[in-house]
Amino acid sequence: MPSPSTTPATALEDVSPQSMRLSTGPIIVATDGMADSDAAITAAHLLGTRTGAPVQVVSALEPIVIPSFGSDFAPIAADVYAPRRAAQREAIHEQLRRLLSPSTECPVTLIDGDPASVLAKAAHDRQARLLILGRGRHRLMDRLLLGETVLRVLQLADVPVLAAEPGMAALPRRVVIAIDFSPYSVYAARVALSIVDPGAALSFVHVAPRTEQLAPGLERLAEPSESLQTAFERVRREIGAEQMSVEYVTLRGTPGDALVDFVTSRNADLVVSGTHGYGFFNRLILGSVATHLVRGAPCSVLAVPGSAAARAATREHVGRGRTRSAPSTQWSKTLAEFSRRNASRQCTIEIDDTALGAQVQGHALPFVGGAFDHHGNEVQLMFGASGLSGRYLSHVVPGVSGIELLADADGRDRALRVATESGSTLVTFTD
Fold first, then answer.
1. Which of 68, 112, 292, 354 is the most buried (most CB within 10 A)?
2. Strand order in the sheet with 423-429
3. How many CB atoms lie within 10 A of CB 161?
4. C-alpha span between 354 and 149 (Å, rounded)
5. What's residue 191's pLDDT?
6. d(CA 257, CA 279)
């Protein structure tokens, strides 16, 4: 079986969202001890009490780079970091004493490195159920920079990320959930239900594309169409919200702008979005929807990366399927047979590097095939580019240390993992 840090992302289409297992790991909260992250500490305590999950504090100690003539940087003596490390640790403990009761235990870990990379990797390695950051900066430029940090974390993380708004003193009760009816957005809604107040009022909001030139601003349709009503009801059943107060809202316009306007009009406590959704009506994309929400929503934002949903689906598949490691002497034959079985299937390719985290490189790519070059000890993966007849995209994985196949309970291939010393490359089928 793959280790937790290299679990392959798995197709979601044949896993029912209600069966996808939410992580039972800890809640990771990010702080540097400054007041800007107070909301994250408070939110972590509230959600730890709500879920029973342990709370762990992770803080990144950014490296010092001193420019010097003739080189990009000069080495920094270890004793320079010691006072910074001690001061940051003391600031964090003081923050915890200020915000939490003396009996509350939160282990604190300081890790050297870029904050986004440090946080994403820590959450991944600990199989966290949630990663929480604060949104405490009030000046426009600081707010934008903090938003970029959150977005950077989202690009690297494969766990749900909560950006907590200042003043969060209770579990969210007015919750807006962006729905595009894909497994990704349904899974995001399931995650949301695990962290909101049990009596919360939910708004399922779908943004339909504008089909004609209309006046700018928020445009709500009178009632969802019959097909949308049925789809909304299905989502409500799948996430187990039958006993909760739920309204169905359909908007027209640009998804990010429409959602921010709606959230503002409702004075919502929390807005929720998946970040790699594919739906039969609309597509929620990290670059458009999550960016708008992180930068512009006047409330806390829960963003659930598609890789988090994929990991949940993987847990479900592994529980009912099987993973097979190919012996090195059979890598060429294994890849040739794998290619014949799966040619033309739609897939996602994800690069998982121990230093940078997991990053999706492409979605909905037709798989052409893979081959192993034993002379160079590398695997070449090929993907057909839509509309480019006879031409392909290729990705070379050097320094191969292992090849694993993940199949579902029916024996159909679900994913290919090519392992290296620095991480792995994952090909996940989405059909």
1. 292
2. 322-326, 400-407, 413-420, 423-429, 346-353, 357-373, 378-384, 392-398
3. 29
4. 19
5. 92
6. 19
Interatomic CA distance for residues 382 and 301, integer angstroms: 37
Q: Is the dihedral of CA 260, 263, 267, 270 positive or negative?
A: negative
CB atoms within 10 A of CB 128: 26
Tokens 């009506």, located at residue: 281
Selection from 357, 200, 151, 254 nearest residue 189 by Cα = 200
d(CA 219, CA 42): 35
Question: Residue 380, SS3?
Answer: strand
* pLDDT digits 0-9 by tens, 212-228: 433 344 455 445 666 88
- What's the one-letter identity of residue 158? D
Nearest to 396 by CA among 384, 378, 411: 378
Distances (CA, A) of 241 to 18, 19, 194, 232, 296: 11, 15, 11, 11, 28
Cross-strand pairs, 285: 276
The model's pLDDT over 168-194, given as tens digits with 9 standing for 90+, comes to: 999 999 999 999 887 778 888 999 999
Nearest to 427 by CA among 418, 411, 415: 415
In the chain, the N- to C-terminal Cα span, in Å, equals 23
- Neighbour tally for 399: CB within 10 Å: 12
Give me the residue spans of the domains in the chain. 4-310, 321-429
Please provide the size of the chain in residues. 431
In terms of pTM, does the model score above 0.70? no
| The pLDDT of residue 294 is above 50 | yes
Fold match, 4-310 / 321-429? no
Residue by residue, DSSP assigns 229-252 as: HHHHHHHHHHTT-TTSEEEEEEEE
CATH of domain 4-310: 3.40.50.12370
Fold of 321-429: Protein Yojf; Chain: A; (2.70.180)
Residue 291 is classified by DSSP as H
To which residue do tokens 């962290």 refer?
Answer: 195
Q: Tally helices (H) and strands (E) across the chain.
A: 10, 21
Widest pairwise Cα distance in the chain = 69
